[in-house]
């Protein structure tokens, strides 16, 4: 459990720093260090802490049950992960209608993914992991809104293909995870057995 907690603390610590850091010219750490070095350090710490989270989550299996969700909530989780994966892909492509409407599709994707998994999993390690991601996504959305970052601007050119690609790729990734990869990557079946 301690490895999971350390991983979560470091991962969200660096993300909290990024969310609250000053963006004022001359005070912005990214500007002072330079984009490349800042992102390099940020990425290395994020990857290392993510590895700790993944390892710690697996090592903490069987650490206790907080609640036992009814089986039908696993079906709700399956449904919520469909738009979550579509939004995740939409966050990585140029602006389409999906990105424009959701403003910050990755944050919404994380909220849907975490909420769905919290509904379907009541183990202590799951509650810590998915609860942390949900809480941070809510916090970060508040922070980007305070900074005035409202996603793609009103004059951005929207490309309809950037709506088709996220739907097709998101559905494909969802099917691959739900039908095949989830037990290989995470040790449990995504589809209720």
**Arithmetic mean of pLDDT:** 93
Class based on secondary structure composition and strand pairing: mainly alpha
Strand content: under 5%
- Binned, the helix content reads over 70%
In whole angstroms, how far apart are the ends? 27 Å
Shape, principal axes of CA atoms: globular
Q: Would you list the SSEs in sequence order as H and E?
A: HHHHHHHH
Describe this structure in words.
The chain is mainly α and 193 residues long. The protein has helices at residues 2-20, 29-33, 35-59, 72-90, 97-102, 105-120, 124-146, 161-186. It folds into two domains: 1-60; 65-193, no CATH class. Helices cover 72% and strands 0% of the residues. 26% of the residues are buried.
Sequence-ordered SSE layout with sheet pairings:
Elements: H1 2-20, H2 29-33, H3 35-59, H4 72-90, H5 97-102, H6 105-120, H7 124-146, H8 161-186
Helix pairs in contact: 1-3, 1-7, 4-6, 4-8, 6-7
Task: State the main characteristics.
mainly alpha, 72% helix, 2 domains, 193 residues
Quick summary:
The chain is mainly alpha-helical. It is built from eight helices and no strands.
């Amino acid at each position: 459990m301690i490895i999971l907690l350390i991983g979560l603390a470091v991962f969200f610590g660096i993300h909290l720093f990024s969310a609250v850091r000053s963006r004022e010219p001359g005070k912005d750490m990214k500007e002072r260090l330079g984009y490349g070095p800042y992102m390099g350090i940020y990425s290395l710490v994020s990857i290392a802490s993510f590895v700790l989270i993944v390892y710690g989550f697996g090592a903490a299996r069987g650490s206790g049950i907080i609640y036992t969700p009814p089986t039908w909530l696993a079906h709700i989780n399956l449904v919520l992960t469909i738009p979550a994966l579509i939004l995740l892909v939409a966050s990585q492509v140029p602006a389409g209608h999906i990105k424009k409407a959701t403003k910050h599709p990755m944050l919404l994707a994380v909220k849907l993914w975490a909420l769905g998994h919290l509904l379907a999993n009541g183990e202590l390690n799951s509650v810590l992991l998915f609860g942390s991601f949900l809480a941070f996504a809510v916090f970060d959305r508040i922070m980007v809104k305070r900074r005035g970052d409202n996603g793609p601007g009103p004059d951005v050119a929207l490309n309809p293909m950037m709506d088709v690609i996220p739907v097709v790729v998101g559905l494909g990734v969802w099917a691959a995870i739900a039908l095949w990869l989830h037990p290989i990557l995470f040790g449990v079946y995504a589809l209720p057995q």
